[in-house]
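HUMAN: I'm a chemist; might I ask for a sequence paired with its structure tokens?

ASSISTANT:
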Amino acid sequence: MLTRVLEPEVMDTHEEALEYDAMDHSAVNQRFVDDLALAQFAAGDVLDIGTGTAQIPILIAQRFPAARIMAIDMSVQMLELARYNLEVGRVVRQVQLAHVDAKRLPYSASMFDWVISNSIIHHLPDPSLCLREAVRVCRPSGSLFFRDLFRPNSLEELNHLVETYTGGESARAQQLFRDSLHAALSLSEIRQLVAELGFDERSVEATSDRHWTWCARKPA
């Protein structure tokens, strides 16, 4: 197993935000929303942690008009692009943006029906802080839906994933993906964190050759 190598927690330069937004995340984002629907999502108050440029909240809002989404990120530059994307997607009334640290959420306990996130966990040196906060602000009987990369077992496997999924992207985009894979948790590591929060570790599953998904309901 490769050793975890941390990357910067916040991508907060204009160039990094533009590079990230220009990468083709369409298939991955659509899969996230499709799987969210399969998890019986339809409406309610949603917290999206680590929204980036708000590509996923836009898809959710367009598909589920009754959803109300608070989309948060630590990167000011990402949020600036997100504001533009919300205008283009015509969902500014459904999606609210906020500059918030996922490790210290300013929201009341049990505030949201759904707490979701795509690809924030690998950015955090101590992901348990974010996960605890997510559980805290999720209402009893509410749902948590997190997805992220898992760390490959070997450098050869990592290189194969980079070539397969970003081979047609810029050198910078390939390096960003490489760094993210190296910074990701292993499947066993995220399962251990979930178990420490009182959830069944089997609620974390490998859902692609590079992604894990945690889908769970908070006890009533």
Remarks:
- The mean pLDDT is 94.
- The two ends are 38 Å apart (CA to CA).
